[in-house]
């Protein structure tokens, strides 16, 4: 049973709002399409593999490295797949786009006294590519990445490094993310409110619920709901 809700949050008592990038602000369809279609098709076109075999190769490697720094590392993927991931991604940058309601949310967020932090696992090249496209970092006071601490947000080490380096009181923080493992890690570390985005990819339906024993996330379709809650006070 969900006990937290957006109405429980007193935004005047929040010091820092930590916001994920992909699947929270940016449409995950760009990344989904790249890993399931664009990359396998490129591998098939430049090797002797059939397209389905190439797709299975990408999928299997993703499953082996999920939740680790390797999963997020473009250099690792380049070495493992034998193709230049950066060079393949760049021509498709026009597919990078905001999720519905993201810009409305960012405008509402700026009205708070709280610090606004972009918190992402994205590889520095991808962060740069997406910022070049949409100027996403301009909406935040600070950007923190898994590469700052060599630990993904799924890891307790990320949250320990975040508090030791910046002195955050996690109980006065909000974490907004589409990843259940990230939100579990944030909540275990002591983050006051964990908000799960249930519709991270505009080309797919809602994600399954992240609620389980010991974890209680606020589940919303999109960050537009947070903007509306902020306006209501």
Structure summarized in a few sentences:
With about 230 residues, this protein is an alpha/beta fold. Helix content is about 45%, strand content about 10%. It has two domains: about 5-25 and about 100-230, 3-Layer(aba) Sandwich (Rossmann fold); about 30-95.
Architecture overview:
The chain has 2 domains: 6-27 and 98-232, 3-Layer(aba) Sandwich (Rossmann fold); 30-94. Helix 1 packs across helix 2 (51-65) and helix 6 (102-109) runs parallel beside helix 11. The longest helix is centred in the N-terminal third of the chain and has 18 residues, at 29-46. The protein has 233 residues and is an alpha/beta fold. Helices cover 44% and strands 12% of the residues. Strands 3-2-1-4-5-6 form a 6-stranded parallel beta sheet.
> The CATH topology of the largest domain, please?
Rossmann fold
**CATH architecture field of the largest domain:** 3-Layer(aba) Sandwich
Q: Which geometry do the CA atoms define?
A: globular
- What percentage of amino acids are in beta strands? 5-15%
Total domains: 2
